[in-house]
Batch of 3 targets.
Target 1
Amino acid sequence: MSNTTDENIKTDLSVSQFKVAEPHHLSKKAAWLRKYYFKGYDREWNNEYAPFTTGIPNDRIWSEGDYYIVPEVYGFIGINGKGLYCLSLDLMAEKVDLPSGFWELSLPERRMTFFREVMLNYVPQEIISSNDLLAGGRFNIQLSKCFTEAQLKAHEKQNIKNRHRILHFHQEGFGNVGATGGHLIPDYKTVIERGFRYLYEKAKKSYDNLTEKEKKGPKGAELRAMITACQIPRDLAAKYADECLRLKDLTDSAERREELQKMADNLRKVPWEPAQTFWEALQSLWLTHMLVMAEESYPGPGTSFGRLDQYLWPFYKRDVIEKRNISRDFAKDLFSSFIFHANTAYDAQIRIGKQGISAGFGQLMTLSGMGPNGEDLTNELTYMILEVFDEWAPILEPKPNIRLHRNSPEKLLDVIVDMITRAQGAPFILNFDERSMAGMILEGVPPEDAWDYACVGCLENTMCGNDRSGTVNCNPNLAKSIELTLWNGKNQPGFKRIIGNDMFKQAKPGTQFGPKTGNPETFTSWEEFFNAWKKQMAFIIKHTVETYNVFEATRAKYYPTPYLSTIVDGCIENATDIRVGPPKYGFVTIEGVAFATTVDSLLAIKYWVYDQKKYKISEIKDALLHDFQGKREYQIMQALMKNKTPKYGNNDPESDALAKEVMQFWAEECWKYQTPTGYQFRPGMLSWNYWAGEDAAFTPATPDGRNAGTFLSNAICPSNGADKNGPTSVTNSVGIALGGKTSEDTYVNVLPNGASHTITFNPSLLRDKEHRDKFKAYIRGYVENGGTALQINILDSLMLKDAQKHPENYGNLLVRVTGYNAYFTSIGKELQDEIIARESHNW
Amino acid sequence: MITSTDPPSSDLSSIKQFSEKKAYIFEIQRLSTEDGPGIRTTVFFKKCPLKCKWCHNPESIEFQKAIQWFENKCIGCEQCIEQCSTHSLSFSETGLVINRKTCSACGDCAEICPTTALKVSGEWITLNNLINEVLKDKTYYSTSNGGVTCSGGEPTQQIEFLSKFLQECKKNGIHTALDTCGYATVDTYSKILPYVDLILYDIKEIDPQRHKEYTGVSNQKILQNLEWLAEKIRAGASFKLWIRTPIIPQFTARDENIKGIARFIHDKLGDTVERWDLLAFNNMAQAKYERLNIDWPLRTQPLMTKDEMNHFLQIAYNVGVKQVQWDGPTKI
């Protein structure tokens, strides 16, 4: 008595009640902190942007290059002068009294001197509440770039050039690129275990080893800046310790007095000295981390914690399990403070909208995963962290990425499925070790080290403590290759953007961008067409790299980050700032956008023009020019393209083979290039929200039947509605596109960065234990057949439509966008519609 | 449902009867979670000897292809009307009208339809292609202790193919389940029992008279077969037996029916039944009936309530059947 599925039928399954996840079982301290956090701008304390200037005329504070990868802000960066963001920071900026001799210092030394002044003497050291157990409040500062007047002049000239270059690149439909901050895992493990004193001594030793000539040059300058940098956390911690003792004197509660004394003791010790307790380790971690965000003047852009449950485990084990110095509940309270502080990154924009939260920043913590011999490393701290996070949920930061593999324990999967069942957007991303590690090995990590990778930003795989992989810096629109191929290297004549940002003029239609690969109307075979496409695709990658490299060079020259450099392994040894040259592993990731749109367009052309011979290229171009509108023939063609054409995502061997070929081709192109700073380009697929936003607006109709200006495909997912055979089929297709497995059952992954894969399930699929067990088995199947990272939405489209109508009832509704969770009611209408339009797979 | 591995449909379209070489199916459902243990691929075979008034797959009953029109997918291009050789299609104010009397169900309209707004249920698939299709999810069968379920319609109607297919599944190490209405001969079942790991066996109605009224046939043979299967298990056969009872308002959702079935299971089948599922009526077939222009007696029927389902469960339990459970949609 089975039912065949029927997507058009509404049912009122009892499990589809519109219940949104809520916090639960919070301790008194945690409940207070959570409530206080969500008071947002009504709080008496917040962590909103505070800009600081050296006081030179027209000082440069805001680094717009950090935001070139966010096309939504282009309207605020200005065209030929300073835009709204920059000017408002300039107006607000507080002048810092500069120590004597400041202007005689090198740029990195000035930066560290200024940073030190600001953090110690201008930003107040505050303990936020008697419910808070960690020090480290304000870090959303905007630091002057500390340019001399001559540097400022040269910089501003370069800046305008760069700005115009990105605006062109973007409005010509190629996507976006920019050298942004964060997106790495600093070597927090070493700071916790050995303290900044160790790094300080290492930097000094490195400096002593320089020749006298080197000491006078950039290496010497950088190391002197690093030596200053290493002491900032110590001196800041000491000030926080003073504040703890001051508060202690004002406090009656014996319990709180004891806590404040302990906090002061901790801060006298860490992060300068090695941590010895769980509390010290967390304090060391938080202060070290917030200073990274402060120095880069960009809150939490993927600045991630790495394998938190691994490097904190010895401390937790000793204090909570073996010696029982602190109770498990107290350890949970400590972690609650950590969660609270991590979320105050969003205070940066606290005046915009409810809680100042519009999207996700991505301070990731990677949990569980395998050890060097394939053994599972889940421990009691893993479960404790997940438990606290679940009690706080829905909450954004720090975002958990849970690493799964063949030996992941059943208990962990039970916890995961339980959390998914109660959430809407799963409160974590699942990362898959075997597939991910194959990518790390591909990029040159020795196979015996690859097990110790972790995630940054959203889901991007990097190594821990010694790797910067620039994981959101390049986001080319791969679907542009279809347009260029069809029009012999030109953008589509007569194309008028329908939606999108109107601040800037669109590139003139019919302009030659790519190579002249011939008018495809004259092509006689699919091979000929595909070869032309390859040339255009290769051009797009080259164009992306060349554009990006200008920004990378500017960043290297003008915006050093010596503090961050001290805590990424390799920088002290090389006496080189992380923005000037790579640490041990250095990559810039090209995150291909609109993969499925590209593949499906190629499939459509292959199928209808060369296999079925129903349409000529000229007819397809004609229909695209008219956006499939105005004539019955166009409409019929579009319907055929959409509905009766092979598509990626259906586990169909032929379509998947082409997807794999497209993947391998564009990925291979990425490896051909390096930055002027010596970073190697590598491929990945993240595509943030570009596919639903600006990239989509700039892309004319495509041969897969997609209308101009509508959503492109998301990361490695099939195009919306293209996959007809359900989640196992899509999962298999994703795994195959990434390279599948060899005949010896070895995983292949041509995208070392990893690829974002989102699947939405209907809540009824998790209705009882039997079905949850099936869901667990599906996840285990994903380990075998799927991609590197999976995010799960458990959503009922009826609920989302209700949330659009009654946002007031859904303040807590978190949904996964691509690699990050966002509050549904706070994201744009287009993105909301996109999420509703995603096929909800009904088992 | 067109699978990529299928040869063009014209190769098979001339076939007019069942054989061991090809199956006549109307759907393949991957990641199926309602038809046996674990994650499964369910193959829906066309044609059924029963005509249950509540049938959820009305397109499965007859050998003839069934054509459905999906209004929301139609772009109104009217190519189907131009294509129809029997002139059975026309547009009215309410949409596409299919004259079922003149329609020969040839499927040409669905073939030309660019949007899949016209769907034909019923297509031939070769053994090789079907095996390739079900092998795609073998990984998930392993992780979930799942496998393949043959459902319908009534799969035993195509016994020659079914037997080959099940053998082939076993050769590939795939767990097999047969979802059957029980209306076949003992000889038929004998042909496939060695290759079946699980039988999902329907007992819809215990009263033979009502059974005939509701389904078109008496339940006598169905119950006899069941006793025969139970005997096989007692004699050491390795397949498992799950009983399924659709709980249909106006029809099977009666205390005395559940009690009667429970007594039959308890007295005649006993421990040979591993599990008994009471499956709450769902209204998902309503739209299908409309599209097939069939008046469904359950058209406006509300769903069961949780209390009602628990009540039936209690009845079964009171008779002494402990391996019973219920599932399905209920009123909120």
Target 2
Amino acid sequence: MAAESGKIDPMHQFEIAPISNGGFEIAGQAITFTNSALWMLLTLVAVWVFMQGGMKRELVPGRWQLMVEGFTGFIDDMMTANIGAEGRKYAPYVFSLFMFILFANILGLIPIGVVGGHPFTVTSHLTITGVLAIVSFSIVLIVGFARHGLHFFSLFVPHGTPLPMIPFIFVVELLSFLVRPFSLGLRLFVAMTAGHILLKVLAGFVINSTNAGIGYGLLVGLPSLTLMVGISALEILVAVVQAYVFALLTSLYINDAVNLH
Amino acid sequence: MPQIDQIMTTYGSQLFWLVITFGLIYFVIGRSMFPKIQGTVDQRKAKIAGDIAAAKAAHARADEIEEEYRVAHARARDAALAVTAEAKAKGAREAEAKVRAADNGIATQLADAEAAIAAQQTAALAEIEAVAVEAAQDIVARLTPAKITKPQVNRAVKGALADA
């Protein structure tokens, strides 16, 4: 598509295309092995390989084991700090979430385009981030109602609210609670999409300006390339921060469900 | 934006693969590997805490032993001091006794000597008296024709000696 029109389409990287023929249908949806599925599997494999380093379970850890234990300890500490001792129960889910998002984000940034590959960022799709957010939100709802029953609604009335303000505050708090899954899913999706579009647009500047002549290449292409280097570094940071934010917010929401206020 | 343009045609496929991959990550990694790694970390923490506790206990035991040693040392020193003090006292007592015995010996010798001196003095005095009596008798006999008897001379000499 991009080659046909002679210009670079920054959105092309987000397109999902089947890799293999065949597949089957479930409820009218064609299930095929797509590039998205490939990168999800790569994420799974990468996380699994990384975690193997932690399975040596030596008393004195090596570098790799220490790295894995750093990740598990990070999530473990976060859950304990935000929820308390009970938080460890939810740590496996938050850890899975964190590792999946982190590795998917970072794998999508690997510049295999240089050798003709097409990296695909799983987390740049609203379908994926939305489902993860809905799963997190469902856990909050299930835990909240299972533990507190209808008393869970007291979450929407903060302590010390004056009586006449309660209906108003309740509505506001309920709305902010209901917006959570959307903000959670959209935040990751938008951050990933925006960063990748920006990188592609700048890459397009470099290619098109250089094709237009060496003068344009030096005038436009070179600054764009410099900017791309900086933004690539920023994107790595964003990849880590977004995974952290997703896990952190999930832990905070679970804390609401477990401890109310 | 393909994410939204394609959403109706691809969501099933994406969901299907997400359930598989995230499910595997959750059950294999989150549920199975993560607790094991946590366990390793906890075990290590427990081991370190245990080792530190053992080291502290050993340290306390060492302190105890040192204290015991110190007490034993002090006791031994006290005992040694007592023994030396006793020995010193005994030595002093013995020396005193010896000195006293020697004193006694010296005193008896002195008394004997004094007695001997006194005896000799009396003997000498008696001899002087006898000599004086004879001399006085001779002198009187040569100078005067008067005859005097020995008891008279004796009395006179005794009186003169007593006056002297």
Target 3
Amino acid sequence: MIDLSNVSKTFTLHNQGSAVIEVLHDVCLRVEPGECVALTGASGAGKSTLMRMIYGNYMAQSGSIVVGGVDLVQAEPREVIRIRREVLGYVSQFLRVVPRVSTLDVVAEPLRMLGQPSRAARARAQELLTGLNIPEPLWALSPTTFSGGEQQRVNIARGFAHPYPAMLLDEPTASLDAANREVVLSLIEQAKARGAAIIGIFHDEAARARVCDRELDVSRFTPARAA
Amino acid sequence: MTPLLSVQGVTKRYGAHIGCADVSFDLYPGEVMGIVGESGSGKSTLLNCLAGHLAPDAGAVVFDTRAPSSHDGNTQQDRGPRDTVTMSEPERRMLSRTDWAFVHQHARDGLRMGVSAGGNVGERLMAVGARNYGDIREKAVDWLGRVEIDTDRIDDRPTTFSGGMQQRLQIARNLVTGPRLVFMDEPTGGLDVSVQARLLDLLRGLVRDMGLSAIIVTHDLAVVRLLADRLMVMKSGHVVESGLTDRVLDDPQHAYTQLLVSSVLQV
Amino acid sequence: MTEYNFAYLDEQTKRMIRRAILKGLAIPGYQVPFASREMPMPYGWGTGGVQVSAAVLTPEDRFKVIDQGADDTTNAVSIRGFFERTAGVATTTHTEEATVIQTRHRIPEVPLREGQILVYQVPIPEPLRFLEPRESETRKMHSLEEYGLMHVKLYEDISRHGHIATSYAYPVRVEARYVMDPSPIPKFDNPKLGDCAAIQLFGAGREQRIYALPPYTQVVSLDFEDHPFDPSKADHPCGLCGATNSYLDEVIVDDAGGRMFVCSDTDYCEARQAQGHRGKDAA
């Protein structure tokens, strides 16, 4: 479902003396449906960078990243957008939304983008928000004013609204209390059960051990840096 | 899939000065593209060349006239992609009243300030042959509602409206004939931040629900991040970088884009 | 008489104006630019109409001038006097006798016949100017038949007044092509513009435009399906001649609010009275 081969990433800082920083070299990774792979490695090893490349957010300098049959390194923007809409979900650590849009609509939006009628999309959003213990009075408000933990749960609800065949999870259980952590982990288990291929970053080791089938140490692909 | 708009080598010079040079891209149905760059980068020149307001010195702007547009009484035949640069002026002006829309930065440039809100919305309908007052009025009421203008204001002139309301009225006036391609020139420029947010939300909803394609020129990177699927960065009349919006903004490759992105104040 | 060329204007100027008139007749409703001359009267007093009349008058013509339907107002009397002096043509107040009729703001009640020419004085020839002040743009709109704007004006009328309140200078479409301002005639007169046996010429002096309707031209007043054109007038008979189908002026007759309605076409009214018709206010 997700297939990376020989993926490399460098950053060229044109405005800082054209410094070239090689971040990842020759990454190969294959994730099958129903499988969950954890990215590990020290902070700065390139876990988030790799995840962003898989999402098409960062450009790979070489190699191929095939998701749902499309190589995102070569694909046109509209192809990447279609894959993101239909195939590849992403729960980031940050919620980025249009101000003024209600929480309910924020969560329902991925389904609306897929052409689902407003009522059905909102019904699914309500179900997720209820499960993640977001109090109903908040649903009509914009999540921009919510606490960090609440925003994170809204983000998760949004990420799980559509049953994506492939998912990227960046610290999905961070800043959650035990009860909500449990809800998120069971959402991940349900996604695996329906056959989703998942790549995640979990600092929460117990969570990682519970949902992940194997680990990939990203520092293996980090080129030795000149000091 | 046929692109809705295929831009091929569009160049516009002002004497020795380059307006825009050799710009090419394809825009597909439902796509929203942002064009960013600083003042004088050629983005507005390019937009005006695409929308038929300026005649480019070279290049083609091919629009797919195939799909029938949604307004009543349109007799457009199955004509396929046509170069709008070389088509006759009446045809181009017909396009700009039916399949195309243009949202100006300053609402006063896109509205008739001496005409009521209802008349402003109804003009495009009447321009394509609507001759039933009751129907025109009904559509105007519907559209004022969709852009969140109190329908009690239908007979008021836009001079009595706030800046945000004027801009929303301009959008209603443009979208009433169900265009397929919308050109926007700094649509949120000059508005208060809170008013901008409301407008952006409205535009996003309309683009999604109507399946519009749009080309948005702006210098505001936040606007393109929210509205545009893809981005083109211009400098001195040339396209220096293009791609998926968040890719260009989060992992800019060209020196100028890196400068542009790093110059934005974080809040 | 000898100090003026026939009908005041020199022959070259008349040729220029006649060319504009012929072009106008060839393209009914189209505004033909012409090099308007200074006339010995102020703009707004009918300089356009006078130049057109001067260009079409021949020594054999019989000339009539009406202002708001009347032959005896200052403007009508002075223009009639002008051509009596400069062209020596015969004049008349009778519509049937006249071969050239210059008019401001009315069409005579009596149907015109072949061989007659009706010359309108036009203040603003551009019907689209109300909404689009740029002449470059209105010319383009005419050339491309983009007339949606004209209906916006009527829409505004209905939205503000509940009906089309435009009661004079009511826009018309000529032969399904050009939208034309019929000059500030009451909309009551609009139906007489179409299928008219006489030649109708329109002259705008200050604006330097001439346009024309050849005989039997199709002229349609613009409207909406659900607000059709209505050539209404005051709902009274004429107080002097009793006519029920003529356009009326309201006249205040005393300081106590007394008023009467009389035909604005004085010749028509007098002719009816001579035939023995009497209204309720007739002496």
